[in-house]
Amino acid sequence: MILKEKTISCVVIDDEIESCNRLQDLLEKIPGIKVTGCETSGEGGIKTVVKLMPDVVFLDVEMPDYNGFDIIKKIREENVFPEFILVTGYSQYAIKAIKNEAFDYLLKPVDIDELRNSVCRLRTAQTKRLEQILPEKLRTLYSLTEREIEIVGLLLEGKTSGQIADELFLSIHTVNTHRRKILAKTNSNGTSNLMSKIQSL
C-alpha cells in the first residue's frame, strides 16, 4: 500500500533554552515535521510527551532533574512509545543510546544536514511500519476482506474504479460493489472520508 506522507509531530526536551530554540529553528526548515512542544525540564517533558503523544522526541541526555535515559524509561512506563533521537554534546552515550533503542544520536551543535537525514530515515521507517500493520488494522477494526483490503490499497494509490477493475480482472460493477461495502463497514460518507480515516490509523 502507498501511504500519503503525514506530518511528523515532535517534542524537544533540553534544559538549555538556547538549544531548544536552535533545534526548533532547524526543524522548522525541514518540510513535513512539526514541533508541538518544547520543554526545558525532564518532568515537564515527560508530561508533555504523555499528553501530546508525538511521533518523535528530541531529547538531551544530561539535565538537572532527570537524565535522558530516565525520561525514556518513564515515558514508556506510561505506555507511550514515540521514537527518541538523543541530542547531546557528549559522544560517550552512543552505546547506551543503542541499548535503550533510541532511533538516532546527534551531537551538538546539530548539523542541519545530519538532522534532515535523521528525519528522512525516520519517515522511511514509519512508512514501512505502517504499510506492514495497516492490512491487519483494516481486518481488525473494520472486518474488511482480503479483496476489500486490496481495493483500499489501490484507492490509496489514487486509482479509479476502472483502473482497479483492469488490474484485478474484475468488472467495474464488482469494484463499485466492493467500494460501497467498504464505505459501509468503515462508516465513511465517501472515498475522501475513507482515505482520511485510513491515513489517521
In words, what does this structure look like?
The chain has 201 residues and is of the alpha/beta class. The chain has two domains: 8-127, Response regulator (Rossmann fold), CATH 3.40.50.2300; 143-199, Arc Repressor Mutant, subunit A (Orthogonal Bundle). The chain contains nine helices and five strands; from the N terminus they run E-H-E-H-E-H-E-H-E-H-H-H-H-H. It has helices spanning 17-27, 42-52, 68-77, 94-99, 112-142, 146-156, 161-168, 172-185, 191-199; strands at residues 8-13, 33-39, 56-59, 83-88, 104-107. A five-stranded parallel beta sheet has the order 2-1-3-4-5, with helices on both faces. Helix 4 links the parallel strand 4 (83-88) and strand 5. The two termini are 14 Å apart. The model has no long low-confidence stretch (mean pLDDT 90).
Strand content: 5-15%
Give the beta-strand count: 5
Span between N and C termini? Answer: 14 Å
CATH topology of the largest domain: Rossmann fold
Topology pattern, helix = H, strand = E: EHEHEHEHEHHHHH
Shape: elongated
Q: CATH homologous superfamily of the largest domain, by name?
A: Response regulator
What's the helix count? Answer: 9
**Tally of separate domains:** 2
